[in-house]
Amino acid sequence: MEIVEKYFPNLTDEQKRQFGMLKDLYSEWNDKINVISRKDIDNLYVKHVLHSLAIAKVVTFKPGTKILDVGTGGGFPGIPLAILFPEVQFTLVDSIGKKITVVQNVAEALGLKNVKAMQARAENLPENYDFVVSRAVTDIKTFCSWVWKKIIPRGNHAIPNGILYLKGGDLTEELSTVPYSRDIFNIPDFFDDEFFETKKVVYLQK
Length: 206
Ligand code: SAM
What we know:
CATH class: Alpha Beta
Structural class: alpha/beta
Number of domains: 1
Bound molecules: S-adenosylmethionine
Mean pLDDT: 96
Strand order of the largest sheet: 3-2-1-4-5-7-6
Largest sheet: 7 strands, mixed
Radius of gyration: 16 Å
CATH topology: Rossmann fold
CATH superfamily: Vaccinia Virus protein VP39
CATH architecture: 3-Layer(aba) Sandwich
Order of helices and strands: HHHHEHEHEEHEHEE
Low-confidence stretches: none
Number of helices: 8
Number of strands: 7
Helix content: 25-40%
Strand content: 15-25%
């Protein structure tokens, strides 16, 4: 938890309380429905919470922004971002219902009013969003084919609306499969833990 405060020093007491609750909540839920590898629970704040929050080092979402988290699993990156941006509307979807059960229970226990969690396949969603965030779901080309049309062009942020995808390793080949303007942000520029050594936030501009 201290690691979150180190990189996000302006958290409110409520946000500190909510981040602080995550360890017990995920430990408890993971015993019932496995959403995080057992080994990762011990490193929850680095591997899941801080990794999710790398997106917040790329863009500060404005109140009222609509964000879609595709393939959220147990709620990453959506839940940590929803704590950090309480006035932003988050829709978290996963095709597997029991994962959504975990997300709904965690969001409720945290008292998050800005999270809607739904069992759905990304390609079937009817609504439009300002940004789509995700981690570890599929290759970039397939991902774009699911969500590109659901992104509202432009917007009012420091960067235009688009996709913010958490990825690791060499992305040259994978990114050559999509024609969109992009920027790649190296997470070690934000956080110095060695876990982030090869990790990036891939931004694709709508
Ligand atoms: N994003 C989470 C994380 O990083 O901890 C979970 C990653 S997990 C490896 C991939 C998730 O994507 C799974 O929970 C899976 O059910 C979900 N998924 C795969 N295809 C999907 C689709 N078309 N629509 C919604 N969810 C999907």
